[in-house]
Amino acid sequence: MKAAIRAIEYYLPEKAVTTEQLSAEFPEWSVQKIDEKTGIQARHIAGEDECSSDLAVAAAQKLFASGVCAAHDIDYVLLCTQSPDYFLPTTACLIQDRLGIPTSAGALDFNLGCSGFVYGLGLAQGLIESGQAANVLLLTAETYSKFIHPRDRSVRTIFGDAAAATLVSAVEADAPLIGPFVFGTDGRGANNLIVPTGGLRRARTAETAREITDDSGSVRTQDHLFMDGAEIFNFTLKAVPQSVCQLLERSRKTLEEIDLFVFHQANRYMLEHLRRKIKVPQDKFCVAMSHCGNTVSSTIPIALKHAQLEGRLKPGDLTMLVGFGVGYSWAAGLARWV
Amino acid sequence: MDHAQFLAEFQKILENPVDGLKGSERLEDIGWDSLALMSFIAMVDEQLGRELSPRDVSRCETVDDLYQLATNGA
Fold first, then answer.
1. How buried is residue A86: exposed, middle or buried, by Cβ count under 10 Å (0-12/13-18/19+)?
2. Where are the beta strands (DSSP E) in chain A?
3. Per-residue pLDDT band at A35 (split at 50, 70, 90)
4. How far off is chain A from B4, nearest CA to CA, in Å?
5. What percent of chain A has pLDDT over 90?
6. Whose CB among A279, A303, B67, B70 lies 3.0–4.6 Å from A286's, allowing a Cys bridge?
């Protein structure tokens, strides 16, 4: 038995912030400038009472409604999130109950950001091909908007909330349909994308809630998400091309043998630069973020779904998936569409 | 990349190109911001195959400081 991606669905919260709205809030930035750099026209924002579990449940319900599988078929839930409902219990356990997944199923959360979907595929493949599970529900769900200061334009323009539900199942096949993978971790980059307080290392206090305006005019506190965009960009320029080369070597494939490249949808500007640097032809490269922004661990499944709907992904096609970001953490893997 | 070529490439990064850019201009006077910084790192990576540290780029005060950094790593 081999593991394969059987189906993907995703869910975006109702409320959306358009680039026109952001431009009205930040008059020093033109719509054109935001659009040109980010390639994002709208970001969906979770409601005040809407948490990652709510988004993930909605995405999973779409998957079940599509008829590809039912809740009772699922024997393992993997939830990738950095914005869980609670410190404890595990959000995946809440989701098991709400979806009516059998109590015989395994369920766990794992905390990764933009690299999370690729790690999740690796974990799902391991569970399936070692005989521990047959139908893994891989969920990616984030509500980064709750970490973002309303006057921090550096991150408000980019991030959107979303969840994706991916069914990874055991199928009859001779050759592997998922993998190989290459992974990477460099904790030296931890401070470049971080929410400094709110965990147990640093409690939230009146002092950490003090607003600070940075050199570029963005406002945030220690209780909010901070991203050093230039450092992250620099990390990406090193890690992504290297991972692509390592994966091609490990899989004994050439760039030409890959049918579709789906990178984490960080922003259009960064993607375009990476595409040219790695020399991927435009028709083999996915950019699908204008309607939802950078949705962290859900960008790759959302882009895959769009490629499928647009007819760019046919059975038998070989995709290269590359996730990279907060940690720093990165991963690249191959997946054959079935 | 000579100085003239550098200035031509640098103009593309700025939101509002500067008439008669010489190189001595102070970055704070010509619309240099965090997006321009990212574009500059990308331009040097693509045109010169060099990776610059954002911290070093942030220390530059004039266009010519950037030119020095991009071409000499000084």
1. exposed
2. 2-11, 16-18, 42-44, 76-80, 106-110, 135-142, 162-171, 178-185, 193-194, 212-213, 219-220, 226-227, 260-263, 318-325, 329-336
3. confident
4. 23
5. 91
6. A303
Q: Domain total for chain B?
A: 1
Q: Assign residue B31 the CATH number of its domain.
A: 1.10.1200.10
Q: Which of A230, A276, A277 sits opposite B34 (nearest CB)?
A: A230
Please tell me the distance from the alpha carbon of residue A139 to that of residue A146, in angstroms, as a whole number: 19
Chain A residues closer than 8 Å to B38 by CB: 229-230, 233, 269-270
Q: Is the pLDDT of residue B73 over 70?
A: no
Mutate to test the interface with B, among A273, A275, A277 (most CBs of B within 10 A): A273
With an 8 Å Cβ cutoff, are B45 and A228 in contact? no
Query: Which of B15, B38, B45 lies closest to A230 in CB terms?
Result: B38
Whole-structure pTM value: 0.94
Residues of chain A in Cβ contact (below 8 Å) with chain B = 33, 37, 154, 215-216, 228-231, 233-234, 237-238, 269-270, 273, 276-277
Mean pLDDT of A54-68: 98
| Rounded-to-integer distance, Cα A185 and Cα A205, Å | 31
Average pLDDT, chain B: 87
A229, A238, A273 member nearest B46 (Cβ): A273
Q: Is B53 on the interface with A (CB under 8 A)?
A: yes
Return the pLDDT at A142: 98
Domain that holds residue B8: 3-72
Instruction: Reduce the DSSP state of residue A171 to 3 states and report it.
Output: strand
Q: What is the pLDDT of residues A84-122, one digit of tens each?
A: 999 999 999 999 999 999 999 999 999 999 999 999 999
Is the confidence at residue B69, as pLDDT, over 50? yes
**Mean pLDDT value of segment A197-205:** 96
Q: What is the dihedral of CA A292, A294, A299, A303, to 10 degrees?
A: 50
Contact (CB<8Å) A216/B33: yes
CB contact under 8 A, A231 and B54: yes
For residue A32, the model assigns a pLDDT of 76
Chain centre distance of CA A244: 18
